[in-house]
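Lab channel / #folding
Pinned by the channel admin:
"Please post every new chain as: sequence first, then the structure tokens as a reply. Keep commentary short and put observations after the output so the thread stays searchable."

First post following the new format, from NK:
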Amino acid sequence: MSTYRDREDAGRQLADRLSGLVGQPDVIVLGLVRGGVPVARVVADRIGAPLDVLVVRKLGMPWAPELAFGALGPAGVRVLNESIASGLDPDAIAEVQRREQAELERREARYRAGRPPLDLSGKTAVIVDDGLATGATARAAVQVARHLGARRVVVAVPVGSQEAYELLAAEADQVVCAQRPPEFGAVGAYYEDFHEISDDEVTETLIATA
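Reply from TO:
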């Protein structure tokens, strides 16, 4: 499997696989905060679609944060996996939700300053991240996008595990994953430059593409 120079390089190669979206009406590209935003910026530019961000917070099990029992999104959207959540103590659920809601609101305030609330009514939402490890965040993003009115939801990533790909394929209308290595490691292993994206980089990207 080849590696990407950086997220911009990954975005260029991913955009080549999304050429079928060029010229389609009501397409919007959504970068998952934070690492998906630089990839999404290139994709949006290449396919001629507007760019926005989707802030999603997983609601993770208190003792296993990677295992999600639900997710929070903008505009008060909450998605619960009832089969998991029903076995949790309500106080534990409330504490996790309080913490994640506070972080979601902080990020929304930072990234949406001067921008209208995200409205996906009738749109094809193209959710872009820099990679899929477990797929839990992207799965939550798909559910949130549907709650926000998206007509069709596409997940697009430069690299991902086969397991995550199959998980997303059952949730999204389409999954575009440029590379699916048989022995998947960490997402960062497939990038030469995989520096952590800062809040400032996200806001600068959004301002530049506004």
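NK: Residues 90-111 form the longest helix (22 residues).
TO: also worth noting, Residues 54 and 163 are 23 Å apart (CA to CA).
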